[in-house]
Amino acid sequence: MSTTAPVVPDSSPIVLEKAEIRSWKAPIAFGVFVLISIILFFGFARHGESTFRLSEKSDAIALPTVTVDSFVTTAIVTILLIALTAWSAYLSYRARRTPLWVVIVFSLLFMFAFLTWADSGSPYPVPVTGLLLGTISLAVPLVFGALGGVVSERGGVVNVAIEGQLLAGAFVSAMTASLTGSWVVGLIAAMVAGVLVSFLLGAFGIKYLVDQVIVGVVLNVLVIGLTSFLYSKLLAGNPQLLNHPPRLPSWPIPVLSDIPIIGKVLFDQSIIEYLMYLAVFLVWFGLFKTRWGLRLRSVGEHPEAADTVGINVNSTRFWNVALAGAIAGLGGAYYTLGSVGAFSKEMTAGQGFIALAAVIFGRWDPIRATLAALLFGFATNLQNVLSTIGSPVPSEFMLMLPYVVTILAVAGLVGLSRAPAADGKPYIKS
Questions:
Q1: Most C-beta atoms within 10 A of its C-beta, which of 152, 294, 309, 383?
Q2: What is the distance, to the nearest Å, from the Cα of residue 262 to the centroid of all Cα atoms in its chain?
């Protein structure tokens, strides 16, 4: 009698091959700027010297003015840009993402070469400190608006009403600060105004299930019309009483404000800039390191799963939309208390939509959205600097730059921009 040995099944683990996803968007974008560099710096080469002024007369520590050869500098930078583009293409071929720091270095090198080319032969040096100061000033409301957009959309509510929140904050802060003589009251009132606009967004978009994009657009039109009407009827008739708010005082931080270049840019500012630094950190830390952030992201990604573990989805969304409005409203106060010093009709001039583009450009991440807002502020301020140094580039082209970058961001040409899965989708409890 013969016996056969039992067949022992193979117990070795099954290894699944990981699918390789190659994204060529970063190297393609780099390649476009390399092509622009070659055309600009070689096809329209400028031979001469470019000067960069690193210090102002009021700086505690004076740095020497830097002078470089325009053509040699732009040629060397172009070679470095080509090398970074090649490396990005290699990473994409290996199915790896291009690191964020590479994008930042590439951008800084390109802008340095562009400024060198633009200032070639000009008797006026490039004011580096002034360029950075203007960037921060123009980016403050964009950063607050973008942070409000990140908080709202991470919770699943599309916040097209950032423009209205900024404008409402600007109007209410101007009037309340003028009446009370206190910029502190103005800042608090601006946050309240942003919350009120958000309450309407939450009520119609979350409770009554109205399309959130439509609600946001309607709220923007409503706030523009309401503030314009009140400005004409109230503020314009008595500007000394109702539209003359106290300006935010400058609070230089000892020692840090004396650091060359970055000292005045980062540490010799008003309280609202310092609140901006704090807000960026708190939103980032809250979203990714706390229970609140986990709950917020869960209702924005998978509300059904969040509901099954006891999270009230619509309540979480509503109150976080209100928080987003408070953040954006604080940004609106910067127009009247920190920048302009008085309210005027439609003074936000579409900056809320630029902030929304920064949210998309930053991939719904507070740090990336802040960097995108700084980029838009830099592009806006650059046209002022170019006109000062007598650049051959028409200022109208530089004014177009933030909107061109916005189109590229929305089109997804700057990388994969995936919104939270439930963003804009109302949740109906089954």
A1: 152
A2: 20
3-state secondary structure of 254: coil
Token digits for 360?
Answer: 């998309």
Which parts of the chain register pLDDT below 70?
Answer: 1-21, 58, 60, 395, 398-399, 402, 405-406, 408-417
Of the candidates 15, 311, 322, the residue with the CA atom closest to the CA atom of residue 165? 322
CA separation, residue 144 to residues 182, 293, 325, 355, 419 (Å): 21, 18, 10, 8, 19
Distance from C-alpha of 192 to C-alpha of 326, rounded to nearest angstrom: 6
Residues linked to residue 269 through DSSP beta bridges, in sequence order:
251
* Residue (of 403, 415, 404, 329) closest to 365 by Cα position: 415
Using alpha carbons only, what angle is made at residue 134 by residues 364 and 101, rounded to the nearest 5 degrees?
Answer: 45
Angle between helices 162-180 and 313-333 (to 10 degrees): 60
DSSP codes, 342-360: S--TTTTTTHHHHHHHHHH
Q: Is 415 helix (H, G, I), strand (E, B) or coil?
A: coil
The tokens for 7 are 């067949």
Q: Please, what sign has the CA dihedral across residues 306, 307, 312, 315?
A: positive
Element (H, E) at 330: helix 313-333
The pLDDT assigned to 428 comes to 86
Cα 196 to Cα 395: distance, rounded to the nearest angstrom? 38
375: amino acid identity, one letter: L
Tell me the C-alpha distance between 226 and 171, whole Å.
Answer: 10
C-alpha span between 29 and 89 (Å, rounded): 11
- Let me know: does 34 contact 85? Beta carbons within 8 Å: yes
Q: Compute CA 383 distance to the chain's CA centroid, rounded to the nearest angstrom.
A: 19
Q: Pick the closest to residue 198 from 332, 293, 312 (CA basis).
A: 332
